[in-house]
Amino acid sequence: MAPPTSSAVTLRINGEKHTLPVDHRTTLLDALREQLDLTGTKKGCDQGQCGACTVLLDGRRAVSCLQLAVAAEGREITTIEGVADGERLHPVQQAFLDLDGYQCGYCTPGQICSALAVIEEHAAGWPSAVTADVRPEAGVPALTADEIRERMSGNLCRCGAYVSIVQAVARAAGAAGAPVVPRQGTGPGDAGAPADGEAAA
Ligand code: FES
Ligand code: FES
């Protein structure tokens, strides 16, 4: 007898359990969008290169187009639908809204999910590829624009809203108590973090 090609899986998404039948080849992205109607998570490239499908798995970033739904069983899955607290936006969402961290908005759910994890990773002292001093005694690196760009580099924006995205992440991180670096200058291409007052807003 041929082995089964589908199974019933129970996925815990945004704090709720969903039991659904899935073909073993179904990605988490397709299960979310096509079977559970959670269409906030977007499909861009469908091959792990654009970040539009980013969700959190146990608090860590994951591209859901490269994750099989059956492999996500037992994990805590957070999608953009689970980020706000009821009607109250999460500070990261509010910062994207206030600072125009988007144009068409297609990449935005993935950008916001990624930013949530970036802020956590940074606060936990994780270095990035551009962190100058990675010795443990150096402590948490300042969240410069370069740090944010590097840490968010897995999320592409075809509208090129990067300047505002960097500012929104900086503001949200500053509100969460991260040491951010004030913006230097205002010229084109300057993606520095907002000034101190802004970051603390
Ligand atoms: S749709 Fe998953 S990375 Fe592009
Ligand atoms: S806002 Fe349009 S792709 Fe990013």
What would your notes on this structure say?
28% of the residues lie in helices and 13% in strands. It is α+β, with helices and mostly antiparallel strands. The chain has 2 domains: 6-82, Roll (Ubiquitin-like (UB roll)); 91-199, [2Fe-2S]-binding domain (DNA polymerase, domain 1), CATH 1.10.150. A hairpin with a 2-residue loop joins strand 1 and strand 2 (16-23). It is globular and about 60 Å long. Bound molecules: FE2/S2 (inorganic) cluster (2 copies).
Topology pattern, helix = H, strand = E: EEHEEEHHHHH
Choose one word for the global shape: globular
Number of strands: 5
What number of structural domains do the residues give? 2
| End-to-end C-alpha gap | 63 Å
CATH architecture of the largest domain: Orthogonal Bundle
CATH superfamily of the largest domain: [2Fe-2S]-binding domain
How much helical structure, as a percent, in the residues? 25-40%
Mean pLDDT: 90
**Class per helix and strand makeup:** alpha+beta
Alpha carbon gyration radius: 18 Å
Biggest sheet character: 5 strands, mixed
Which small compounds were modeled alongside the protein? Answer: FE2/S2 (inorganic) cluster
The strand line-up of the biggest sheet is: 2-1-5-3-4
